[in-house]
Amino acid sequence: MNPNSIYQVMAQEAINRLSGETVLDCAIGQHCVAIESQAGTGLAFNTEDAWQLTTDAGGAEAVEMCFRGVSLDALIPQYPHGDPLAAVISLAAINSVLNDNSSHQKGDFVWSDILAGRRLAMVGCFTPLLSVVYKSVQELIIFELEDLPDMHRPEEAPRLMPACDAVIITAATFSNQTFHDYLPHISPDASVYIIGPTTPLADFLCDRFHLGGSLVVDTPLVLKKIRDNATYKSIQPWLQKVICPRKIP
Fold first, then answer.
1. pLDDT of 126
2. Angstrom distance (rounded) from CA 161 to CA 181
3. DSSP per residue, 50-117
4. What tens digit of pLDDT does each residue of 36-89 get?
């Protein structure tokens, strides 16, 4: 698969599951976006570019009104090709469909066992994991978009990532559509985990990756908190962590 086509394939998987769903409600905050449809509630990380477009369009409330009642058949195809705001809104719509999946398991990965002795590449700094990571791994390489001490720019992935036998990638890379930038540099033998509350629980992703995401268990409350510019950490009590392990060939 062309790495850049992964977004199109994900949108198509969601489209194949549709049966007339529409956007029942939409919530946009500075950090998070949510779409409620008849299939469920999906989340997406908001990006700085998308938030700026929201501001330029008259603010979150005005943009939310524009999306309520929109058909998911019309919204989801915008994900691979739309502007940054359309991308995060349509990603949340995709997740509202894909997260309605009986194959996921409640819970989280046991990182201390998974990472023991590994050379780990981490795309995005998962602060809550760092205490476990530092105790377990042989080597840790963290990639960040911002210039931060002891971290590496994405441009260094071709040099550093192929030697890693485990990779953890933030689901935020599906919001800013940088996920594909790392794929060519991951060793075919590496164990790869996509994690975060906005991870798309897509069947085709499980052919290559382990997925760790979250389901919304209290939609009205989560939507309210998102409109109050809550972070994902603050809405965690109203989310249920789930995992979809990689399919065994």
1. 85
2. 12
3. HHHHHHHTT-HHHHHHHHTT-BHHHHGGGTTTS-HHHHHHHHHHHHHHHT--TT-EES---HHHHSTT
4. 999 999 999 999 999 999 999 999 999 999 999 999 999 999 999 889 999 999
Q: What are phi and psi of 217, to 5 degrees?
A: -105, -10
CB 11 within 8 A of CB 82: no
Distance between CA atoms of residues 94 and 152, nearest Å:
31
Which stretches of the chain are assigned E, i.e. beta strand? 23-28, 32-37, 40-45, 105-106, 119-123, 139-143, 166-170, 191-195, 210-216, 239-244
Beta bridge partners of 198: none
Mean pLDDT of the region 23-28: 98
Token representation of residue 99: 């997260």
pTM for the model stands at 0.94
Q: Which residues contact 68 (CB under 8 A, 6 or more apart)?
A: 23, 24, 25, 26
CB 53 within 8 Å of CB 106: no
What are 141-187's pLDDT values in tens digits? 999 877 666 788 889 999 999 999 999 999 999 999 999 999 999 99
Residue at token pair 């469909």: 97
